Amino acid sequence: MSFWSKLLEADQNLFFFLNSKHLTWLDQLMFLFSSDWFWIPLYALFVFLLIKRYQKKSWLPIVFIIAGVILSDQVSGAIKRTVQRPRPTHDLTLQKEIHIVNNYTGGSYGFVSSHSANTFCIAIMLISFLYFRNLASALIILWAILVSYSRIYLGVHFPADILGGAILGLIVAISLIIIKKRVEKQLIYKA
Fold first, then answer.
1. 29, 56, 65, 82: least CB-packed within 10 angstroms?
2. pTM for the predicted model, two decimal places
3. Domain containing 160 — which CATH number?
């Protein structure tokens, strides 16, 4: 068995272990955690905190966070179309063994997770832009982990999909944080 085959087998085994750990009362909660609409109040809080911190200049971090979400989402979509790794729910050999909720199966391909890429991108950028420390940083990372884990719980992503998405989100966030700092310097020099 090749190294790559062993990695895929380990990924499937971890997926089945995590996906099997479900509770009836948790099903709908995890379904909500996976919904973008559920987090609108939290996103509104993020915007409020950015406006409070940056005041008239709050447009800059907000624009960069929106750009980060768009970029991480588009890149993750491009990777999915290129790699074409079926989601667990679309793998005919695995479908019968997977715990799903509300008959939700997601799109055809899963690597890399857009949910994971987007939430980790937002989390890292917010930690940087709002100078979060200790508890606040831990909570925002916990939020990204929770949203990402919900995708495994719902049966629509393997752990490697989540890890790949988190790494993509991290790369996009760090890149945009660096660019934002350069833009801010340019704005200061022009002022």
1. 56
2. 0.91
3. 1.10.606.20
